[in-house]
Amino acid sequence: MRRTSAYRVFAIFYSFAILALLYHHLIHLLHSPNTLSFFILLADVLFSFLWASSQGFHMCPTDRRVFIEHLEHYVKESDYPGLDVLICTADPHKEPPMGVVNTALSMMAYDYPTEKLSVYVSDDGGSKLTLFAFMEAARFATHWLPFCRKNKVVERCPEAYFESNPSSWFPETDQIKLMYETMKIKVESVVEKGTIPHDHITNEQEKQAVSRWTDEFTQANHPAVVQVLLEGSKDRDITGHTMPNLVYVSREKRPGSPHHFKAGALNVLIRVSATMTNAPVVLTLDSDMHSNDPQTPLRALCYLLDPDMDPNLGFVQFPQAFHGINKNDIYAGECIHVYQIHPIGMDGLAGPFHVGTGCFFRREVFSGVPSRTPGLSSDHLVSKSIGNKEVLASAHHVAAWNYENQTNWGTKIGYRYGSLCEDYFTGYRLHCEGWKSIFCNPKRPAFLGRAPINLNVCLSQSKRWGVGLLEVGFFKHSPIVFGLMEIGPLMGLCYANYAFRPLWSIPITIYAFLPQLALLKGVSIFPKVSEPRFFLYIFLFVGAYTQDCLDFLLSGATIQRWWSTQRVWMMRGVSSFAFSLVEYLLKCIGISQFGFNVTSKVVDKEQSKRYKQGIFEFGVSSPLFLPLTTAAIMNLVSFLWGMVLIFKKKNLEGMLLQMLLAGFVIVNCWPIYEAMVLRTDRGRMPTRTTIISIFLAWALYIIVSVSPKI
User: Fold this and answer.
1) What is the DSSP letter of 320?
2) Cα-based angle 414, 420, 422 (whole degrees, multiple of 5)
3) Which of 65, 224, 634, 677 is most buried, taking the most CB atoms under 10 A from its CB?
């Protein structure tokens, strides 16, 4: 990209400014040692390390485009490789089955040869409610797929299509919508009641499938279930056209046996799909990430089949995009850095991270190191019917709870175990093994999902990611720092920037509290306006924020969304990243064990209304809110007290940076003040949280007041 040279020049100047600041800190600490100076130095050292690690994203940003109209010159449609789509869900009450059904239907309706397309759904909750939803989906698909094909519908997700402008509908749309609404009402009624009425089971095959859920069948203790719902070699749609395969999978679970959360579920899907169809291309998806472009597989093939591409190309990563984001994206749900800016920066190196969903893999990447054999073939396809008893027996066998014992699954094969961020860890290990990746970012988003509309859910999700990232950074068998030797310094910096991302909590927390506590005590800790170091601080702050803002604007985002992102970043630093760092340390010493919590996809109508209005959602007494409200109170009180000191001592010059810092935090904390004092709706800050935060702020002030020397 043209901006590369500017990035590199700025990095040089900024590096010198950082070195100058750290030098002054060190000299000051040696001449006047005190606790506050030490912590400020620590904060700036960590800021410097994390900034330096982020420069890997700016050294070689690359933008790519594909031209799918040229694909036919390289391969005929009949020679397209098989495609296995793997979708994971875990809880029908947190991830409503109709959402998963919409995702699967949008994949089944791809512009891709149906005889080469298979969709596998992993139900890690082992729920017959999810199975019933997909039984209904299989019936609806026989009408939906020909409807999309006949009318060349672009939006292949039924829910999204029926929410679109009716002026673009076709004559038979009302009829197909009625069928969809009937299915939706039936499925949601079954999920709400928790049981399947007998009259909803229409044939013997469905009866046998549901009969496996006996009294002994529980979420944590049940046999493997592999149910073929649609078989391409047998089933036809209403026009007589072949259907893609649709397979429901629920792996075996036994009490006390490790199941490795989502990574374990994906590995089971990889094995089951290998025994049934064994397509050379595998697409992994989250349950709520539906297709937004029916030609997405063709875009991936433009890279995977290009004879000029690196034969070690292992996966093509598409960005996550979200629908329903409010105007200013108040929770930074778009994650522009993760899904847009940073992948573009890594694409000029060995390729982007794997971000968990929307990724097309060569199946062979899950088997070990690159074979250096270019191209893809259809030779992988299994010739036997997927409904064959022998094939089904093999599928159940590889879904057994003890199948992975004494094997390399999770270490050298499949998704890697050892981190709650299985996607990040797996991508890291694949890059270390020599595989490359490509970032494909078409103008029309390939996939659309749903971002959290609740601050507590957003912070909880970040906390889980933080623990997972630290598990990778300090992984006992191969710490991230050793990856510098395997994937090169710039790629190593990129991975390190994410692996140690929770460490941001330390400098952010220090700057959110210590200067303000010093201000309450009337102590000036930053240089005066007349000192050169004052302008050094201004340059470092303004320079970093300006570069980040420009990155956002150049990616197509608005300045309002950039402001929301930097505010949420500070919230995460004080709250979720700090909690994840503590929980990881407690886990390391054996005090606690962190589990995998499924992010709820259920949408509350009142919360949704407030979210659309751009109003923050608090509402619950979450520990994650305590450091936020404490910091908000501390900065407001210290700012007001600083104003008093300025008028009394006329010492504006000595207190200016501390006042500016407190004022900056106050501006970012406005939604918190509003939730504590001005709001009366159910999303306001709980009174209990506010009272506890006041006591915490007061306790911090008392500690500083009785300290003889800060």
Assistant:
1) P
2) 25
3) 634
Distance of alpha carbon 163 from the chain centroid = 25
Residue with tokens 């939730």: 675
**431/495 Cα distance (integer angstroms):** 10
| Helix runs in 277-354, H state only | 296-304, 336, 342-346
CB-based contact 582:588 (threshold 8 Å): no
Each residue's pLDDT tens digit, 435-467? 999 999 999 999 999 988 999 999 999 999 999
Torsion of CA 3, 4, 8, 11, to 10 degrees: 60
pLDDT of residue 417: 94
286 is in an annotated binding site: yes
Give just the sign of the alpha carbon dihedral 417, 423, 426, 432.
Answer: negative
370-419 confidence digits (pLDDT tens): 654 445 554 445 557 898 999 999 999 999 999 999 999 999 999 999 99
Pair 331, 343: CB distance under 8 Å: no
Cα–Cα distance for residue pair 532/645, rounded to 1 Å: 24
For 253, residues 6+ apart whose C-beta sits below 8 A from its C-beta are 126, 219, 220, 221, 222, 259, 401
Task: Go through the chain and tell me how many residues it has.
Answer: 710
The answer to whether residue 587 scores a pLDDT higher than 90 is: no
**How far, in Å, CA of 154 to CA of 17, rounded?**
51
Q: Which helix or strand (DSSP H or E) is residue 94 part of? A: none
Give the pLDDT band of residue 480 (cuts 50, 70, 90). low
Q: Rounded to an integer, what distance in angstroms lies between the CA atom of residue 247 and that of residue 412?
A: 27
Phi, psi of 614 (to 5 degrees): 80, 25
CA atoms within 13 A on the CB side of 430: 32
- Angle at alpha carbon of residue 564, lines to 562 and 570, rounded to 5°: 105
Residue 616 has pLDDT above 70, yes or no: yes
CA atoms of 356 and 87, how far apart (whole Å) = 11
Report CA-CA distances (Å) from 184 to 96, 100, 134, 215, 352: 11, 12, 11, 27, 38
Q: Is residue 124 marked as binding?
A: yes
- Residue 488's pLDDT band, with cuts at 50, 70 and 90, is confident
Q: Is 360 helix (H, G, I), strand (E, B) or coil?
A: strand
| Nearest residue to 302 via CA among 442, 114, 157, 103 | 442
Q: Per the annotation, does 235 bind a ligand?
A: no
Supply the mean pLDDT for the chain.
Answer: 91
Stated pTM of the model: 0.93
Residue 14 identity (one-letter amino acid) = Y
Between the alpha carbon of residue 227 and those of residues 120, 143, 187, 315, 388, the distances in Å are 10, 21, 18, 28, 12
* Residues forming the active site: 124, 423
- The token duo for 320 is 């996550």
213: left (phi over 0), alpha (psi -120 to 50) or beta: beta
192 is in an annotated binding site: no
262 annotated as ligand-binding: yes
SS3 content of the chain, % helix, strand, coil (to 5): 55, 10, 35
Query: For 154, what's the count of Cα atoms within 13 Å in the CB-facing half-sphere?
Result: 7
pLDDT tens-place string over residues 66-107: 999 999 888 999 999 999 999 999 989 889 999 999 999 999
Q: Kindly tell me if the per-residue pLDDT of 678 is higher than 80.
A: yes
What does the pLDDT read at residue 168? 77
Distance of alpha carbon 173 from alpha carbon 168, whole angstroms: 10
* Token pair belonging to 376: 């893809």
